[in-house]
């Protein structure tokens, strides 16, 4: 809607400028009677003799083609004045031929209704993703036991989803504020091209492309890290984290900045939201397509490894197929491999029904993807659930111990000291530990993982902290729980 309105107003401005140039008085016989030339904010009327006057419908109207056969009419009276509406000073004008194509408005109304529904859906999706991802990041940051390279990567991935959601929602808010106004005069309409409004819209558009790119490259980082666990020896994860940070946050800068400079120089129109020259759009599309393709390659490679391992150790008939399907469903949102369909098989500049299908599919999946990733890799994660339950039991137990201290007559101001001296108690594998003597978790140091990396998938059941199956047990957890 915004791009169509911008384009119409720009064409109207050009039409008005050309009209004012042609309205200069010509060398005509001044002894004759003529109606004065004018521009009535809709069409350009030349100096005309008495009688019916017709001019082509203005071509700035979206449904009018320049050089078409549609006209609008006025009437010049014998005394050299334009005919007015009865009992009014408004000049009479017949513009029925210019507005007879009501099907255009009907199509635009239907299109606007469809896009409004789509906007509502992806707004719900991005809002839900934003809330769930914020909660997931908070959990991973506050639970210190979960601090590791794997979860640092997850946190950055969640953050990229969050920034992407915020940029889309902010862009929609700015566009709504901009185009919700209804100017009542020429100055008001021209104000649509105010540099401040245009700059705010362009900044949000550039930010949206940057964070969309960051999101794609953090998905690639997840794939690279998972590949390194399955196919190579993990040496220094901390050292690799800096490289991962550059890939995730730095790579998008390398192509978004050149794209922005190119748009500013050669295609500084509207809000940079419309693809006019496909060549400029490839500056953004090529790096993102390469990233998505690389992740798809990793995805296929992991599935081949899982398939070969599971098929070689079949336990219960077709059980391995179920586990492979489950692993596939878990990997798809993490690696973003569905993006390959939108990158190669759907035309960016398509119109009509194909464009609506692309928009609906892409925006719906992208908006809810963050929520799905947070659900699978945080809220349904067995390790996170176990840590949260342990914290809850600790707080619950501490609360009643403080209450018991009060009942036994201990002075209230000393309760803090008593609680500090109280040793920490842990339960681990049905054994009791005091003062943090709990055994540390396994670390990956130069361990060849090719043979046992998918040991977990060959088990008869899927275990979590309570013995229940969950999709949240990712391949990283599989590696940690395997008997290596």
Automatic annotation (TrEMBL):
Which keywords has UniProt assigned to this entry? Cell membrane, G-protein coupled receptor, Glycoprotein, Membrane, Receptor, Transducer, Transmembrane, Transmembrane helix
**A GO molecular function held by the record:** peptide hormone binding
Regions crossing the membrane: 120-143, 155-179, 216-235, 244-261, 281-303, 324-346, 366-384
Q: Does the keyword Membrane apply?
A: yes
- An annotated GO BP: adenylate cyclase-modulating G protein-coupled receptor signaling pathway
Q: Does the keyword Transmembrane helix apply?
A: yes
**UniProt-listed InterPro entries:** GPCR_2, GPCR_2-like_7TM, GPCR_2_extracell_dom_sf, GPCR_2_extracellular_dom, GPCR_2_secretin-like, GPCR_2_secretin-like_CS
Species lineage, top-down? Answer: Eukaryota, Metazoa, Chordata, Craniata, Vertebrata
Domain G-protein coupled receptors family 2 profile positions: 18-102, 118-381
Q: Which family does it belong to?
A: Belongs to the G-protein coupled receptor 2 family.
Q: What is its main location?
A: membrane
- Which top-rank group of organisms is this from? Eukaryota
Protein name as it appears in the record: Glucagon-like peptide 2 receptor
Can you cite an annotated GO cellular component?
Answer: plasma membrane
How is this protein positioned relative to the membrane? Multi-pass membrane protein
Q: Where, per UniProt, does this protein localize?
A: Cell membrane
